[in-house]
Amino acid sequence: MSSILAWPAWARRAPAALYTIAIFYFGCADIGLPRAPVLPLDKITHFFAFMGLAWLIELALAETAAAARRRAAIAGSAGAGGLLELAQAALPYRSAEWLDLLADTLGALAGAGLLLLLARLRSPRAADPSQQPP
Question: How are the residues of the chain apportioned to helix, strand and coil, as percentages rounded to the nearest 5?
Fold first, then answer.
């Protein structure tokens, strides 16, 4: 199995670009989500859409240092959410909502946080003295 860093840059970056285009297409299209009286499907959709975008931005920036990559993923995903809300505010059949932006940002944070957790779980415990040979 080859490392993600061995992939060409375009192969790591294209999914994030295409996903962003899809988010903006569906976010600006004149379609509606089904209304559920109990579940806020719109906010749940925003949360998971921007969690996915944060993951793809981290993949796109795999060659970057982990902390900088995570900050860029959060800022890029949450920033795209803000731009989407601005675009929706300009459309007569859509509405911009602060709660959508909050869901976008929380999704970006959760996505980066989950990847950080997975990275820590997968990394060797070099810092743990009990794991060091005598």
Answer: 70, 0, 30
Residue 73 identity (one-letter amino acid): A
pLDDT score of 133: 47
The SS3 of residue 87 is helix
- In the block, tokens 């944070």 appear at 109
The interaxial angle of helices 98-122 and 41-60, nearest 10 deg, is 50
Q: Read off the pTM.
A: 0.84
Spatial separation of the C-alpha atoms in residues 40 and 66, rounded to whole Å: 33
Confirm if 105 and 81 have CB atoms less than 8 A apart.
yes
Band of residue 76 on the pLDDT scale cut at 50, 70, 90: very high
**Residue found under tokens 């975008």:** 53
